[in-house]
Amino acid sequence: MTDVLTLDAAGRPVTVGVRRSARARRILLRIDRNARKAELVLPPGASVAEGRAFAEKKALWLRNRLALLPETVPFAPGESVPVLGRDRLLVHAPEARAGVVLDGGRLIVSGRREFFDRRVQDWLRREARRRIAGLAHPKAARIGRNIARISVRDQRSRWGSCSAAGNLSFSWRLILAPAEVLDYVVAHEVAHLAEPNHSDRFWHLVDTLTDHAGHGRSWLRLHGPGLHAYGAGGSD
Question: Burial, 80: exposed, middle or buried (Cβ in 10 Å; 0-12, 13-18, 19+)?
């Protein structure tokens, strides 16, 4: 982003980032639901003043859309965070020596308060990697394919990806979703090891690797953006 605009939406300020794009054909105003930000996209030749005039006409709409986004939930004592779709209460136990422990409906976190957020996120990432690997390797073996590497990141544009080299990448935030949703995303990316497209053959292969394809897609469309409301939102 090269600039930031502050718009007046019925007496309330709305901040909009400005980005130039060589591929854009017209001025666009978009909301990144995952990053919880508004962005004004300017094509070549368009001035910031022209962009502002365009955005000001939509300032009230923009404010209302941003207000509908889910509130951020910090990784802090007393907050609830879903693990595999089930809410877990975050509990601080500074004198404990076990790091982070999932105990029924509680996630118990030891250590100093200033490290609480990072410890929770690190645990969620490790748990995501462990469960994803436990699903991915057996599914790949079923279709006679090998996985070169599995990585877990805070990617925001997609839940998973598969490279031509056989590397699979997933959002760690999938650990917050129900188990069947995680199973679907893993099956989707493993299927790409054999079918690097979205053809009928690909979707048939997905259905052989999971029983949750339809539900997984629907759940992510409805609830996926809300997973990005948890934590500080740091990225790799």
Answer: middle
